[in-house]
Amino acid sequence: MQSLLTRQGKVRRIAVAVTFILLHLSILMKRRVGGDVMADAQQWLEEGMELFKQGRYEECIERMYWVLQKDAEHYTAWFYVGAAYAQMHDYENAAHAFFKAAEIQPDSYRAHYNLGAAYEALGSYMEAEMEYEQALQLNPEYENAKKGLMRLRQLHRESYRKSPWDQPQQPQA
């Protein structure tokens, strides 16, 4: 059984390598015949956005990374990478991507809100609260950020109400 899995893994790695080589060859060929690589990046971006809508998050991330190879400061690509990772419950990678999006466009209340949501999912409540507050500074009417902030503040209130002595404990000698 393990050898079958090993063979399948090797076949998958070879397929990925061949796809990668073919992709780069097609880019080189387009450059030689006057193809517009940035137009390809726009096509990849649009494909990635469509893949996201279809719930094909891993493929979306792949397309967005192709865009980011051409333009590492592409806000929309970073945003979709974060959103796709969040949909897959990979909040650490989502936070990294949303952090980069917020760094590129510091006035994006959506990037700050989503970064806050990723931090909240990771249990980094102070960071989440700061990002929700930043989102509300940028857009005071943004309901999602208001709800996130209220949720965190409720969590703080509940944790302050509980004393360590509220739970029956055995004395420690």
List keywords for this structure.
173 residues, mainly alpha, Serine Threonine Protein Phosphatase 5, Tetratricopeptide repeat, 8 helices, elongated
In the CATH hierarchy, the architecture is: Alpha Horseshoe
Which stretches are low in confidence, meaning pLDDT under 50 for 5 or more residues running?
28-34
Structural class: mainly alpha
Got a strand count?
0
Helical fraction equals over 70%
Distance linking N and C termini:
53 Å
Cα-based radius of gyration, to the nearest Å: 22 Å
Structure description:
With 173 residues, this protein is mainly α. It has one domain: Serine Threonine Protein Phosphatase 5, Tetratricopeptide repeat (Alpha Horseshoe), CATH 1.25.40. 79% of the residues lie in helices and 0% in strands.
What can be said about this structure in brief?
The chain has 173 residues and is mainly α. It has eight helices and no strands. It has helices at residues 2-32, 37-53, 57-70, 75-87, 91-104, 109-122, 125-138, 143-161.
Layout of secondary structure:
Blueprint: H1 2-32, H2 37-53, H3 57-70, H4 75-87, H5 91-104, H6 109-122, H7 125-138, H8 143-161
Helix pairs in contact: 2-3, 2-4, 3-4, 4-5, 5-6, 6-7, 6-8, 7-8
